[in-house]
Automatic annotation (TrEMBL):
Residues 34-87 form the NodB homology domain. It comes from the Bacteria. This is Polysaccharide deacetylase. InterPro entries: Glyco_hydro/deAcase_b/a-brl, NODB_dom, PuuE_HpPgdA-like. It holds the Pfam family Polysacc_deac_1. It comes from Porphyromonas loveana.
Length: 263
């Protein structure tokens, strides 16, 4: 099964890169535009996805857009309360606050911002059924999970761990930066080989990647982040969905996948 997921959050990359005064209203507006672009693509292709949202971003969304995410059959999961500030109590708080604003099924999953480490026990105590915070590879300056499990597993507390996909053997990460920078045909070849080997593909992106963040006034972000953002990234997402559909792979939400494991 193909699991597409999107970490919908405040666009705080400028702050992370030194633009401390980048306004929160603009952070939210950029991610709003990207979220709309993503939803249009998913509806056009007829596939469903999981949206890991911060409470801050979810509360900023117009009600009709929140309703659309529900009525189009997507899943809502937690990405914390804020993207750049985390406390353990935010695990339960974010799940409860998102549940109160969500007309779909109960919020069951969590992803830690920036895929940072999070206690499996604390995830279980906050009532989550799954956690998708593991990227089982080595990213210099970020984390080293090269020897962590590549495939989903149930941890000692009964919570399903859904790692982000990496290639077999070399564990090349197939996350958002790879789609930005690899030749598209190579990226498609890699994800198709990975799902053929694993019968599992978990790809994640962010809404601001699908906005024109390379054209922000008074804010020049790194090439690593802005390369192929906006319309070109929309085109690339459509191409990878088309390639996987053509190969007869099915798309589903994280909860769909967990349900399939217990069938």
């Amino acid at each position: 099964m193909v699991l597409l997921s999107f970490d919908i959050e405040e666009f705080d990359v400028p702050v992370e890169q030194g633009y401390q005064s980048f306004p929160i209203d603009q952070q939210l507006e950029i991610s709003l535009r990207g979220t709309e672009a993503i939803l249009n693509i998913l509806r056009k292709k007829g596939v469903r996805a999981t949206f890991f949202s911060t409470v801050t971003f979810w509360e900023s969304l117009p009600k009709d857009l929140r309703n659309r995410i529900c009525t189009d059959g997507h899943e809502l999961a937690s990405h914390g309360v804020f993207h750049s500030d985390f406390k353990v109590e935010h695990l339960l708080e974010s799940r409860q606050r998102l549940n109160a604003l969500w007309d779909g099924a109960e919020v069951r999953g969590f992803r830690m911002p920036r895929m940072m480490p999070i206690s499996a026990l604390e995830i279980a105590q906050a009532g989550y059924a799954y956690n998708s915070s593991l990227n089982p590879t080595f990213i210099p300056g970020r984390y080293n999970h090269f020897f962590a499990p590549r495939l989903p597993f149930s941890d000692e507390y009964g919570v399903y761990q859904l790692p982000s996909s990496v290639t077999p053997l070399l564990r090349f990460p197939l996350f958002w930066l790879s789609l930005h920078h690899l030749p598209l045909n190579l990226y498609i070849k890699m994800i198709k080989r990975t799902i053929a080997h694993d019968d599992y593909l978990n790809l994640y992106f962010h809404p601001w990647e699908f906005a024109e963040i390379n054209k922000l006034p008074n804010c020049k972000l790194s090439y690593t982040v802005t390369h192929r953002s906006g319309e070109e990234m929309c085109h690339r997402l459509e191409r990878i969905i088309d390639a996987l559909l053509l190969s007869h792979h099915t798309f589903g939400t994280a909860s769909d996948y967990i349900s399939s494991l217990s069938d």
